Amino acid sequence: MSIKNCFILFFLLVSSKIYSQNSTKKLFHIDKYLVTSNGKNFEYIKEIEDYDSDKKKYPIKIYYKSGKIYLIGTTLNKDKVILDGNCLYYYENGKRKRLANYENNILINKQYYYHENGVLKLESEFEVSKNKKESTLKILNYFDENNVQKVTNGEGEYVEEGWNDQTSTGTIKNFLKEGIWRGHLIGKKVSFTEQYNKGKLVVGHSLDSLNNKFTYNVVNERAHPKKGMNDFYNYLKKNDIIPKNINGKITGKIIINIDINENGKLENVSAYIGDQYGITENAIQLISQYENWIPGKHRGVNVKTHLTLPIVFQ
User: Where does the signal sequence lie (predicted)?
Assistant: First the structure.
C-alpha cells in the first residue's frame, strides 16, 4: 500500500472515530460530479453537519482524497449536493481557488477566481433571467499569474480555462465574448474555433487528432435517449418499475445515477440510497437494459456524460 493510500485510510479511520462521537456529522464518498459513490470509485469526501436534523440548509465540507479541504459552503439537501449561498473552494495546496455564489445550485451574482500562487485571477458576474432558465456570464476584470491586468472593466483579452484541461483565448467587449475565439481540449487532443456576437455563440468548428471536423452551435449537449425522454419513461412504466403489489399504495422519489460513454453505451447505473420495496433495484435493472442512447457532446465531440434521473412514484 502506498503512503498516499495509507494517509487516505488513516484520514477516514480517524474521521470515522471522531464523528462516531458526534452523530450530527456524517461522511460520504462522492465522485467528480459530487454524487455519492462507493468507496472504490470516489474523488472527494463529503461531510454534512446536522445530518440527523430536518433543516432547510446544511453546512457542507468537501475534502480532497488527501484530506485537504476542497469546498466549504451550504447545501439545500443533505443527501445530494445542491449548493446555496457563498461557497469557498481551495486548491490542494491550501490556497483559496474560488469564491462562488449559488442559488439552488445555479451560479449567480459575483464570482472570484484565484491563481494557485494566490493572485486574483478573475472577477466575473452571472446575470440570471427572470425564469432562472438562462444566465449570462460577464467578465469584469482578469489578471494573469504575474498580476498583469488583461481585462479591465469588461474590455480586453481573456484566457478562459475549463474542465478537462481546456483553454480558449479571445476578446472581451462590453463584458461579453466577441468575435473569433480559439482554443484546445488538451485531454481530447481537439482544437476549436468559435465565433461570438455579444456573448452568444454563433457557430463553432472543432478538429480532432484524426482530422475529423465537427460543426456546432451549442457548446454542451447532454446525452439523451434516441426516442426521447417520454419513450424512456414510458418504457419504465410499461415494464412495471413499481411492483404491482404496491403500485398506487406508496409515494416518493428515487434518484438514479447513469454514466453514458462516448459511444452511447451505459457504463454505470446506480443509486446510493435504496428503498424497502425493491423499486430502486428494479429501476437499476430496467435502465441497464435500455441501451438506445445518443452520447453527450462537448464542442461537437462525443464525451462521457453523467446523468442524474429522478423517478417519482405516486
Answer: none
Type of residue numbered 171: T
Q: How far apart are CA 244 and CA 224, in angstroms?
A: 28
pTM as predicted: 0.81
What the block records as the C-alpha cell of 9 is 485510510
Strand spans (E) along 104-189:
106-107, 109-114, 120-128, 135-143, 149-152, 155-162, 166-173, 176-185
Among candidate residues 198, 173, 208, the one with its CA nearest the CA of residue 299: 208
Ranking 33-42, 63-72, 245-254 by mean pLDDT, the lowest is 245-254
Please tell me whether residues 213 and 242 are part of one structural domain.
no
Establish if 163 belongs to a structural domain: yes
Average pLDDT on 302-307 reads 90
Domain count, the chain: 3
In-domain check, residue 129: yes
182, 261 Cβ separation under 8 angstroms: no
Give the domain extent around 233: 224-313
- Strands of the 220-221 sheet, one edge to the other: 220-221, 296-298, 301-303
Q: Residue 268's beta-bridge partner residues?
A: 259
The beta strands (E) that lie in 17-119 are given as 26-30, 44-48, 58-64, 69-75, 85-90, 96-103, 106-107, 109-114
Domain end position, chosen among 217, 245, 277: 217
Question: Which residues partner with 274 through β-bridges?
Answer: none
